[in-house]
């Protein structure tokens, strides 16, 4: 027995020391921080339970000039605009993580549900009036021309809406997906009444999205573009929303909707089945519906979703002859010569989801003459998450506050400017410029934020001006909530 234990210790030591990039990660700590991050992105009146104390109330009159209350929700990134389209995707992914892995979150589960609810309460407000969905608050052009704390902002809080006359199917359908996913999370973990409210609204919002079809690019383009233009069309969001409502209701109408409309989904854009993120839901639809297709042999043989999901997995695996994704020298996933941690976290979540759905199935993933097993899929997931947490050539965590080495000069207004406690006087639009230009570390740690990531050679410039790499976003971090919950338990 002593000999076996000694051998095990040696193996573990070699595993850590044999590779300079091998690090034993505290996934539970990373999970807690990934959820805490959302408190730093909150808009509106902050609750007494607010833990990220340097943030204070902001945007307390959003929507009031239109006679509606649109306070609450999240700022999307390092700016002070509330974009409902990526915000809804953020919450769909976070709620999906709670649905699948909430039982592994332990003491962090209430915080995760609170983070979801901060957005769904706002979505209930933004969808409360028949015939209109409020889709964005804040003028992005003036906002991006300022470097100002959210507590100080005096840029226009312009309200953008989609209506029956000027529809926006993608933002409406993604909101429906978020409400449906959140309803499942709350119904599974103790607040069934709230979950029922969310589900009822999801059905109403999806009906609006489907009946009044058009892209919000054409309806509120001056607000959405070029920041969050929808480049892949709204058909994928309609299928995504319908699939989530089917998962939440078991109403066969929505499953038939997905199957009957797959032709528009399939023909939409070349290579679409290999995309997943706030804009494109294609691969996510295939993985989501695979959960019930795998349990129904008839559906498996008459629908293309498993073949789509398999092809997506084959496109990722380094062992696959049909891979289209590449990797940096340090092992980070990249596509089209770009590294993007939003893509990495979202895709890794899908791989984990498909792996879990395959557990009780005899289905085999075939990539031409190669087969991919569940162990390979899980290894892919772990490697990508570990890279984000610091198992990379720089030994740098791309999650703020995790580990000893992480980005200190992130592209984020509130984090980079002295807090109200340090500087109680108003900071005007251009008064924050010296903070932006400073080479010093940000005075406020946005704990749990995950930045855009490294270059294709695994290098990283820790500078605010390097916005594409140093700016954190809500939709980079949200898939990590479920991923880290799983890894912390396994």
Question: How would you characterize the overall build of this protein?
Answer:
This protein is mainly alpha-helical. The radius of gyration is 22 Å and the shape is globular. It is built from 21 helices and 7 strands. It has one domain (2-489): Glycosyltransferase (Alpha/alpha barrel). The chain has a 3-stranded antiparallel sheet. Strands 4-5 form a two-stranded antiparallel ribbon. GO terms for molecular function: cellulase activity.
Short description:
This protein has a single domain, classed as Glycosyltransferase, CATH 1.50.10.10. The protein has 21 helices and 7 strands. Strand 6 and strand 7 form a beta hairpin.
Beta content = under 5%
pLDDT below 50 for ≥5 consecutive residues: which ranges?
A: 1-21
The strand line-up of the biggest sheet is 1-2-3
H/E element sequence: HHEHHEHEHHHHHHHHHHEEHEEHHHHH
**Which geometry do the CA atoms define?**
globular
Give the helix proportion (percent range): 40-55%
Examine the secondary-structure arrangement and name the CATH architecture. Answer: Alpha/alpha barrel
At the first level of CATH, what is the class?
Mainly Alpha
The tally of beta strands, per DSSP, is 7
Average pLDDT metric: 92
Main sheet record: 3 strands, antiparallel
Distance between the termini: 25 Å
Number of domains: 1
GO molecular function, one term: cellulase activity
Family: Belongs to the glycosyl hydrolase 9 (cellulase E) family.
Keywords: Carbohydrate metabolism, Cellulose degradation, Glycosidase, Hydrolase, Polysaccharide degradation, Signal
Catalytic activity: Endohydrolysis of (1->4)-beta-D-glucosidic linkages in cellulose, lichenin and cereal beta-D-glucans
């Amino acid at each position: 027995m002593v000999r076996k234990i000694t051998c095990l210790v040696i193996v573990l030591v070699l595993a850590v020391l044999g590779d300079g990039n091998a690090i034993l990660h505290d996934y539970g700590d990373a999970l807690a921080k990934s959820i805490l991050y959302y408190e730093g992105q909150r808009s509106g009146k902050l609750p007494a339970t607010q833990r990220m104390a340097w943030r204070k109330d902001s945007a307390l009159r959003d929507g009031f000039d239109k006679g509606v209350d649109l306070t609450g929700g999240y700022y999307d990134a390092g700016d002070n605009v509330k974009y409902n389209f990526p915000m809804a995707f953020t919450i769909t992914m976070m709620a999906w993580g709670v649905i699948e892995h909430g039982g592994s979150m332990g003491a962090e589960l209430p915080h995760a549900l609170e983070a979801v609810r901060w957005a769904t309460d706002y979505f209930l407000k933004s969808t409360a009036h028949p015939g209109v969905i409020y889709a964005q608050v804040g003028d992005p052009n003036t906002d991006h021309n300022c470097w100002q704390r959210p507590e100080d902002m005096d840029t226009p809080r312009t309200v953008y809406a989609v209506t029956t006359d000027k529809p926006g199917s993608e933002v409406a359908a993604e909101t429906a997906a978020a409400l449906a996913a959140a309803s499942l999370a709350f119904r599974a973990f103790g607040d069934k009444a709230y979950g029922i409210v969310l589900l009822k609204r999801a059905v109403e919002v999806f009906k609006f999205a489907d009946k009044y079809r058009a892209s919000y690019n054409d309806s509120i383009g001056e607000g959405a573009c070029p920041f969050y233009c929808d480049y892949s069309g709204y058909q994928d969001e309609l299928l995504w929303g319908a699939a989530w409502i089917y998962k939440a209701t078991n109403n066969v109408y929505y499953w038939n909707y997905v199957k009957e409309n797959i032709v528009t989904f399939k023909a939409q854009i070349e290579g679409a089945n290999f995309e997943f993120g706030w804009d494109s839901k294609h691969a996510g639809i295939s993985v989501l519906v695979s959960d019930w297709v795998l349990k129904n042999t008839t559906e498996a043989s008459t629908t293309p979703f498993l073949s789509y999901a398999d092809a997506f997995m084959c496109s990722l695996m380094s062992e696959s002859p049909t891979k289209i994704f590449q990797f940096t020298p340090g092992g980070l996933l990249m596509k089209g010569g770009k590294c993007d941690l939003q893509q990495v976290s979202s895709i890794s979540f899908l791989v984990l989801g498909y792996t879990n759905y395959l557990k009780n199935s005899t289905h085999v993933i075939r990539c031409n003459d190669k087969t991919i097993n569940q162990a390979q899929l899980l290894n892919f997931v772990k490697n990508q998450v570990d890279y984000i947490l610091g198992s990379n050539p720089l030994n740098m965590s791309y999650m703020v506050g995790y580990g000893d080495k992480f980005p200190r000069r992130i592209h984020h207004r509130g984090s980079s400017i002295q807090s109200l406690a340090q500087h109680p006087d108003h900071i005007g639009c251009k008064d924050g410029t010296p903070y932006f230009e400073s080479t010093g570390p940000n005075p406020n740690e946005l704990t749990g934020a995950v930045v855009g990531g490294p270059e294709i050679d695994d290098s990283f410039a820790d500078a605010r001006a390097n916005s594409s790499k140093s700016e954190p976003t809500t939709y980079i971090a949200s898939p990590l909530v479920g991923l880290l919950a799983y890894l912390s338990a396994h």
